[in-house]
Prior knowledge:
Layout: E1 7-13, H1 21-32, E2 36-42, H2 48-57, E3 60-65, H3 70-76, E4 79-80, H4 82-87, E5 92-95, E6 101-104, H5 107-118, E7 127-131, H6 135-146, E8 151-155, H7 159-169, E9 175-178, E10 188-193, E11 211-219, H8 228-235, E12 240-242, H9 245-260, H10 266-277
Parallel strand pairs: 1-2, 1-3, 4-6, 7-8, 7-10, 8-9, 10-11, 11-12
Antiparallel strand pairs: 3-5, 5-6
Amino acid sequence: MSTVKPDKYAVFGSPIKHSKSPIIHQLFAEQTGQNISYDAIEVSADDFIKSVNTFFAGGGKGLNCTVPLKGLAWKYAENKSEHAEYSKAVNTLILQDDGSVYGDNTDGIGLVRDLNNNQGISPNGKRILILGAGGASRGILGPLLDQLPMSVFIVNRTVSKALELANQFAKKGMVSGCGYADLYDKKFDLILNATSASLSDQLPPLPEGILGKQGVCYDLAYGNKPTAFVRWGFENKAEKSLDGLGMLVEQAAEAFYLWRGVRPDTGVVIRELKNRIQ
Ligand code: NDP
């Protein structure tokens, strides 16, 4: 009996050891009957181009790229979605039939789907604060602004990066940049932590009283226990204080759809991952 070789996919990044993407894509593949393999491969920025070329030359069909490679993936992709082009960050590469490589960014769609579909939180009409002005903020800004929030503030430790990012997206909606010291007199309905502070259990310097009544906190990071920012949300009486596991699964589902043309049931996979983490 001949066995058909699985189509090859992977996530590149550094560090990558703890990535949950291989489990997520394996669960998607089982659920939808797709014959794929998906590996997590440690790739530094210096080795990026060589590693991507080798992967596709060796039969690879698609890649996810994570920290610190999203900007390099943006440069690598010959064609991009409008959103990826604008955000200057790519997390999904697709080898096309003509041999060219297409880039997209599914982080923003992942966040918006998790908020709207899984958490029952609509960004529409909300006063939103995004902490951080790195790759993740770039990826989520466009899809968030498409939801027509009342306003979006980007706050960053390096203030110039927040101002630059706000400027870049100003045509798309009400978006401003500032430093943490400028937040003391402001209130927000939804605070999204897109800094990497949670990865070292740190908290950005947030002033008291910035979370509005029935405000929601959402950390793009996730872990086996509540992050420092999720804990801050609870301490500051957030109606909900959530981590980014749902976003992770939703952005992966969009990448899976781009590669395979099939939409997995994300709810089942989020529940399965939560069970495995506990
Ligand atoms: P980057 O390295 O591109 O950006 C990091 C940002 O965090 C910068 O704005 C940096 O500020 C800020 N920062 C770092 N440490 C601190 C601190 N102690 N206090 C205040 N600000 C700080 O990272 P990414 O944007 O790619 O990733 C950010 C987070 O989002 C990570 O936790 C990542 O895991 C998560 N993520 C989750 C996804 C999901 O699917 N759930 C998808 C994508 C990302 P400065 O510019 O001043 O250095």
